[in-house]
Amino acid sequence: MQEEIKTRGWEMQRVCYTEFVYVEYNDCNGFTYEDPEYGLGFGTECRKVGKWEPVERCHDELVYVQEPWYPGPGEGGGNGGGNGGYVPIPPEGGTQPMTAPNARKIFSGDLTEEQWKKLENMLKKIINDCMGEGLYKELSKIFNSNNKISFNFSDKEKGAKYSPINNVITFNPNMESGTLLHEMMHAYQYKQKNDVDIWRNQTINSEIESHYTQYLYYCRDTVSYNESDWIKGKIRGDKRMLSTEKLEYYIDKKGNFYGDSINFEIYWDYTLLNCFKTYPGYENYKYTPYEDRMVNFNNLRKITENCI
Ligand SMILES: [Zn+2]
């Protein structure tokens, strides 16, 4: 028996996202000069400098919420049914490979064939990494046939975000696999407690773990660190990236502590937390001060259990 086609149709949803806007301002420096004819003079030299600033934007959006149907292994053939949205073409006789099998396993969405391929390619890079594979396997246990992460490519989203309430990843098409890994990590973190209030109280904790996981992913050979979203953040002086990288002096690639605990505490409280709590857009995020800071890397340890 084929599964029931779940079609929820169009729903109005409140969509919020962080947009980075480029702001130009005049950077003026006073200077003195000596003119051979007129003597000492003063002036002001200005130059235009710019920086990216995050702005939180929200609007109501009509979202097509649909669970795409496709046959499970061995079911083959069948009729996907038509409801106006995109319905993936079921493989004939169950022998043709399904487009984007890894992506369709945990994600649902009204994506074009091209978008499914793009998502699948990013996922392949992630699964090619031991830690990424661990995360994907854990997500596969949570998100499957009836309960998947809704995935939405959107140019309006300047980066990417995971919304736990409606279980949606919104993703700018220009972002790459490391950013996808970051958002997948948020989905995994949220599901550990599955409680919005707990999630809100430890947003900073989750961000630290997700950022570090993302950084570790770039440090491995499967992706080029120099072309990553991460390095773009570093270049524009993003203090989240700059402060996260120093975690590697204290936390290894499997989320275990090594190093000097006094220095670690000083760095955690005065550098890392400070950078995250004051990051524009994160000011209202909450932090739960666990006595054992290693609690913050529980998920990283779990997804790297089988890695060297
Ligand atoms: Zn995040």
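^ zinc ion complex. The beta strands are 7-35, 39-66, 107-108, 149-153, 160-163, 168-171. The chain has one domain: 59-303.
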